[in-house]
Prior knowledge:
Number of strands of chain A: 27
Strand order of the largest sheet of chain A: 12-11-10-13-15-14
Oligomer: homodimer
Strand content of chain A: 15-25%
Shape of chain A: globular
Distance between the termini of chain A: 34 Å
Number of helices of chain A: 18
CATH topology of the largest domain in chain A: Nucleotidyltransferase, domain 5
Largest interface: A-B, 48 and 47 residues
Low-confidence stretches of chain A: 57-66, 114-119, 646-668
Structural class of chain A: alpha/beta
CATH architecture of the largest domain in chain A: 2-Layer Sandwich
Helix content of chain A: 25-40%
CATH class of the largest domain in chain A: Alpha Beta
Amino acid sequence: MDDKNAMVIFQPSGRRGKVPVGATIMEAAIHLGEEIESLCGGQQVCGKCKVLIETGHFEKFGIESKQEHAGPLQEVESNHLSEEDIAAGFRMACATTIHGDLLVYVPKESRTGKQVVSKAARDLAFDPDPAVKIYTVALSPASLENSAADLERLCQALAEKYQLPEELRIDVYALRSLRECLSRGGDLTVSVWQGQEILRVHRGDPRPHYGLAIDIGTTTLAAYLCDLTTAEVVTTASLMNPQVQFGEDVISRINYHMNYPDGLARMSQTVVDGIHSLIEDALAAASETTGGAVRPNDIEDVAVCGNTLMHHILLQLDPDPLGAVPFQPANHASMNIKARDLGIHVNPSAYVYTLPNEAGFVGGDNVGVILAEEPHQSHETVLIIDIGTNGELILGNKDRMICSTCSCATGPALEGAQIEFGMRAAPGAIERVRVAAGSFEVDFKVVGRHQWRSESQPEEMRTKGICGSGIIDALAELFKAGIVTRSGAYDLKAVSDRLRENPDSEMMEFVLAWADETSIGRDVVITQNDIRQVQLAKAAIYTGCKLMLERMKLEKPDRIKLAGAFGNYIDPKMAAVIGLFPDCPLDHIVSVGNAAGDGCRMALLNCSKRLEADWVARHAEYVELTLVKDFQEHLIEAIHLPHMTDSFSHFDALLPSEPSSARSGKSR
Amino acid sequence: MDDKNAMVIFQPSGRRGKVPVGATIMEAAIHLGEEIESLCGGQQVCGKCKVLIETGHFEKFGIESKQEHAGPLQEVESNHLSEEDIAAGFRMACATTIHGDLLVYVPKESRTGKQVVSKAARDLAFDPDPAVKIYTVALSPASLENSAADLERLCQALAEKYQLPEELRIDVYALRSLRECLSRGGDLTVSVWQGQEILRVHRGDPRPHYGLAIDIGTTTLAAYLCDLTTAEVVTTASLMNPQVQFGEDVISRINYHMNYPDGLARMSQTVVDGIHSLIEDALAAASETTGGAVRPNDIEDVAVCGNTLMHHILLQLDPDPLGAVPFQPANHASMNIKARDLGIHVNPSAYVYTLPNEAGFVGGDNVGVILAEEPHQSHETVLIIDIGTNGELILGNKDRMICSTCSCATGPALEGAQIEFGMRAAPGAIERVRVAAGSFEVDFKVVGRHQWRSESQPEEMRTKGICGSGIIDALAELFKAGIVTRSGAYDLKAVSDRLRENPDSEMMEFVLAWADETSIGRDVVITQNDIRQVQLAKAAIYTGCKLMLERMKLEKPDRIKLAGAFGNYIDPKMAAVIGLFPDCPLDHIVSVGNAAGDGCRMALLNCSKRLEADWVARHAEYVELTLVKDFQEHLIEAIHLPHMTDSFSHFDALLPSEPSSARSGKSR
């Protein structure tokens, strides 16, 4: 914070921004587009705007007190909140003033906006062969004639019916429940891990058996709750990675660890807390779907992918070496760790399988992308661009595979805090933009609304900000319309009341949505600085792709796949206009969604994918781009927007681009 | 407790007895022969008699408050004890009055008696091949050229130098320390479990690597701290099993579990607490021996044996089925459980290996005896009598092996609470007795003193009670001298001032040591009831042996081995006189000490012994003696003492028996 403004982050939406000190949390929510329930309109009488002050400071500032960045508890709050709520840190958003930086959790019952799963699950084609398999057997009671122990009789029965090994291990937690299951007779359901270890035994009505695939992104946590017997996704849940309080990007998290002796433990606990939130959400949704109470105990397997830093933090491994040459991780290989040893509350016998790490920056998430997209099985050379907080690049075919990370944190530069009105692809985010040549009139579409602006009343748009696909659209359209030049600067000769100088920042900006088209009561603009950020990000991605093609001695890839929840929504034509990636026929560019999460899910549900994962981690060659000769020169060259005929030969075919409703048909 | 007397148990000695309510703990200690430091002679001025009130009640009575069975804290205690001590429950023995049953822990610094290891370690002949092996490698720093991860470089080095598999698992706790070890360079020492999993890595000066074999007896815990590189016993430690507060024998512990919902968890925690005491003692002794601080972290492997109930309680497995037909345990097979999952504080990566169970009552302790004595490798048929709290019997040869338990709790009947002056073989315990024919004069020897009574002044004896070998000696000698008849009754015609009727109990008793020969100021006697207890125990053992011989269609065994810390000190001749076991040439009877602990130690230090253990548990046949036809008749027949020429053909050769000093040469 500075003297006058404080940073407020809302969870789980991840909406954030600076607000004046002294404002209430409710005012901040309105300002930042966070929708908090308020039946009384902020009159402090309904008590519906209950929020949790998670951290009354940001850890990186090293302040310990929890509440000091919020004003004192008001009498009206004591009347509306229970003693337990107050003890737990709950406040009324309309009655709580902001004194400093705040992390605010908005509980489900206080949210008005519908939940948005930005990392939805794709249908994947693979044979289910989960690590944890379910077997049913019937056991006759023990007798003096067959007084073999409970476990041995169970193993005998499993061996006879399913040809499992006669001597299975059993987790001591499962062994503890065995007698209770056997004593009442009847059929038993047995969960066996890797054909080696009994994790769970229960009797009678078959309970559900779930596995959880967790994609730990630097910014977003996504979880896929899967049925281990059908291999279907039952529900998904996502959450902003609560570690953002320690810093936006990987470097600032490494720094947090280096600055605070307990930094690693705190970051680890924070992500585990986040995982517990995901589990709670996923189980609540699954309980609704299945009509029965689904409990943490029903989750019998967990697979986790994340970049190498996320992996190290979760496992509490010293991340120092990831920050310096030779960027060496603690381990490459996948691991199977009891969930209880990581403090993750699922079935106590369950394992957490961690996807292997490739190198210091590319980790199990990258392996997940490869598992899902299988470039190593392909005759064609595929370029996969995974745009999350970091841009990760994979280029390969069945003979060779190289991978790398982009030189800048692409996520923040495209939809994060570095963009004035940047936000995740949640309801109210501008996701599509068209700018008319000549008139410079703007049409746009927001997430959660089918009709474009031109088909709606202004007040129906309830715009809140711009997400990544929107900003790429906007820059491409502004460039095509001539408002932005090849250098990325606003063309001051362009005449439009939308293009103006901001009196405070003295910076040029272009209005995408007027205040009356928003729910935040302010014009949503793209600043000159926003454009610079996008240029830096696209230069980093483009340069990375080019250098990797050079490394493989190729002119261009046969196919391009855009991955990442964010990459999924980019319009390839628009990305081509701004030169986000090298030349490639348009119909050879596809979006593949959250491929990392998909790969993680495949590893959860198919054992051979786990073997493949370790093979991939060993065989993918990591290229450290910043060490490539003339890297900086390449990067600087790539900052300009491309010539209309440059670098993307199909450019002409793209004009004019029409508003398309294909996108709005997708469920978000 | 009754109205006037309370039961007091001292730990770790296990000394126990009833004392009048209102006495001080120091008075109780003197009465019961517990030696507590008291420089001022109980004047409440030295503060040396610090003791810990562990439980101010016995759990089986279900009372919760910790201190209510001890009088309130005195001012003098506040002056002598620190605030921390008082908060932890420490009291001055001389200032604390007894209001009810008490479990009192006497800390090392408050003990005057030297420590007695009743379960000393024998030299065993076996090839060391521990489950945890130690390797040393040197690693060069990571570089851009070889940027393999820390773990992979370590595995490479181990594979090259020691031909270990290239892909070892690693415990996540060990992985966490890997970077710290690597970053400072130099040689690394690596502990690998079963050639599969890295448990520990450290650098620089080689630290010691220890394994711990723990024999969990119903009454006694014994631990052997072994050097994993030399396979030598570094130190031993023993302690009364603190579970005795829940009941003396296995049945009363099962009942405690059935009566209290948290009974199992409490008993489990209690034995884990006891194990922690053993570890503390063993590490302190090892630190003295090695001259460096030895820490719990240095214990990298643990092997545990105990009867099936002790096994189930430690692992928190429901023990109900062990108490009823068909006496079925939860599992037979050995297990490897992380120490942290049992709450045992050694190296966090270490495994606890539990020896397998044979049946509902014979567990890993019996398997340990077999591992150590190897009847299954023998052409001769060996009868092993393991006398602990329970008598366990093994009869077998290379073709067949059967085992069983005696029908009564032999330990309590021979040296436990059922004997008026019964005590463990600790300093001051009568261990050898001679009664002159005709004069009925008594000579005896106590543990910890080389000279017999006849060679000493009365006050030098400092007798406290009678241990198991002493009571067998005494009964045999009284029988031979004609004071006790074949039926076990005192012969009222015998004339001796030592034989008298106790006016309170109206029961006959025989004085072994006069008050002036004791440190407790009372005559130490053998009551008629004591003799009945010994008869019951010997009948149970004898009948068990006979029925097992019948089962194998044998007249007599080729050899008899007496095992158990207690069995170790029995004089075979004396045991023969009272008919403790079937006929066998005297020179074919040997004492083998704590064979269960020895076997546990072998399993700790030799992997193939672990395989053998599972084989043994599968192949030993369990015979439930109480279900054998005419069992009760056999038992009743065996209660009489044998004819002088009966059942032990060498009896004549035994007379006269001379005081022997062979025994006193043993270190106890």
